[in-house]
Design a protein that fits this description.
69% of the residues lie in helices and 5% in strands. The chain is mainly α. It has three domains: 151 residues, no CATH class; 180 residues; 42 residues, no CATH class.
Length: 490
């Protein structure tokens, strides 16, 4: 029978098969399995093969005889350049004396080849799929454990990781700029507050305005001005000088000395004015517009001073917070070298496990597809092209050749033995032998005279030889009858 080897019907670029053995080697493995002792013994029992041999010979010899009667011939396809030719089909042959039985056994052998191929491919694909699924589960478990370690490490050192270094550096720079801006703002607010406080004190210490004109800043007090008016003019002059010159400027020093000289006089004048009866004061409960403007200015300066206090307090608290953030960012950056080695180890192991898991996942998916391919019987398969047929004539027997060869070999051996005996015989039988060997003339010849005992011994010898010959003929006939050797002559 002829069995074709059909290739996989799905392109290998779409689904890669898990059966990696070449067809030639896989056929060798299948042949070993099909011709195993178990399968052959089952076939012998199923079809009742070799009944006489089973009774006369050991079981192993009967199985060996059947194995010799089975022949698997491969038919290789035309090989491409640089490739080893692979079989595209193979023939299964079985020789037996019964033609119908030979056809049945041959058909059964072919079916065993087909079924065994399907089972082997399915088992191999399933085993590969199960193995990859087991490895994938182990890799998934290890990956999850490593992910838990990474997550725990991130929770402990979330902002101190080497991956956060750039972010921490940028945050530290921006925070330092923010702290510097707050410091400058606080300094400006304090300067503004100090100036307002000084102006407020000066404005609060000024006496109520009088019709007498007050000198402008930087000019001499008007003639007839009181000590308080002169002090106010001196202070205004000092403020104007301080805004234009440094504190150690001679004009600033002179103005401060003038203010210091006028302050006691103004204080004494204020005490005298308090004890004196105000004759020219404004009516009780009525304020002049100048007094109202002065008080409004004082109120505005007090409100601005209070706002500056709140603003300075807020900015100082903000500065402390920013300073704390700066210290935290610096601590994170300082902790990076100590954590970097452990982080690199964890990430390296995680990347390795993740790559292994992805590779196993890809292979497991491909193996699952290959297993489905084999389950649906669309992979490489064996297909019976020509089923076994009952033979019309028997195959040419080799017994005639063996018998002719044995006869020829026996004839040659007999002639050789006769020639050897003749050569080894040293006795003289004729006159010529004496002349050739001794070179002496022969005067007379005396024939050999047998005695009665020698004649009796010769008769017994001929009788024994005859009996042995008859026994040999009887044994040969018995063997020929049992083995049906005459079939070889048909």
């Amino acid at each position: 029978m002829l069995i074709a080897i059909d290739p996989q019907r799905v392109p290998d670029s779409f689904v890669r098969t898990t059966v990696t053995l070449e067809t030639d080697r896989r056929l060798d493995a299948l042949q070993v399995q099909v011709l195993s002792r178990t399968n052959l013994l089952q076939l012998i029992e199923e079809f009742g093969l070799y009944p006489q041999e089973i009774e006369a010979l050991p079981q192993e010899e009967v199985i060996a005889k059947m194995r010799e009667s089975i022949n698997v011939v491969r038919e290789n396809a035309r090989a491409r350049a640089g490739q080893v030719p692979q079989p595209a089909a193979f023939r299964v042959r079985f020789v037996h004396t019964d033609p119908a039985l030979a056809a049945k056994v041959t058909q059964r052998l072919g079916e065993i080849f087909v079924d065994q191929n399907i089972r082997d491919r399915g088992a191999l694909a399933g085993a590969t799929n199960r193995f990859l699924e087991t490895q994938l589960a182990d890799a998934r478990t290890k990956l999850e454990v490593q992910e838990q370690r990474l997550e725990a490490f991130r929770q402990r050192h979330g902002q101190e990781l080497p991956t956060q270094t750039q972010s921490n550096v940028q945050s530290l720079s921006s925070t330092q700029l923010q702290a510097q801006s707050l410091v400058e703002s606080i300094a400006r607010d304090r300067d503004r507050k100090q100036m307002l406080e000084r102006l407020y004190r000066e404005a609060a210490s000024e006496p109520p305005p009088t019709p007498v004109a007050v000198a402008q800043a930087g000019s001499a007090p008007a003639v007839g001005a009181t000590a308080q008016q002169q002090l106010a003019a001196a202070r205004a002059n000092l403020n104007g000088l301080e805004t234009r010159y440094k504190p150690d400027h001679p004009d600033v020093v002179r103005a401060r000395r003038q203010v210091a000289e006028l302050e006691p006089k103004a204080a004494a004048e204020a005490q005298v004015a308090a004890t004196r009866e105000p004759n020219t004061a404004a009516p009780s409960g009525v304020l002049t517009p100048a007094e109202l403007a002065r008080r409004e200015r004082l109120r505005e300066m007090a409100a601005e001073i209070e706002s500056l206090d709140r603003q300075i307090g807020f900015r100082e608290a903000e500065e402390r917070r920013v300073r704390g953030e700066i210290a935290e960012y610096q601590r994170r950056l300082e902790a990076v070298p100590g954590l970097e080695s452990e982080w690199v180890k964890l990430t390296r192991d995680y990347d390795t496990m993740q790559a292994a898991y992805r590779e196993l996942l890809t292979k497991s998916t491909a193996a699952d597809l290959a297993a489905n391919l084999e389950d649906q019987d669309i992979g490489e398969r064996f297909r019976i092209v020509d089923p076994a047929q009952v033979p019309v004539r028997p195959v040419q027997s080799l017994r005639v050749r063996y018998n002719a060869g044995g006869l020829l070999a026996g004839l040659l051996i007999g002639l050789g033995l006769a020639a050897l005996l003749e050569i080894r015989d040293r006795s003289f039988r004729t006159e010529t032998d004496v002349l050739e060997s001794l070179s002496l003339p022969v005067l007379a010849t005396v024939p050999y005279i047998e005695t009665a005992a020698e004649k009796a011994r010769d008769r017994k010898r001929r009788l024994v030889v005859s009996v042995i010959g008859a026994l040999c003929v009887a044994v040969a006939g018995y063997v020929a009858w049992n083995l049906k050797l005459w079939n070889s002559l048909l």
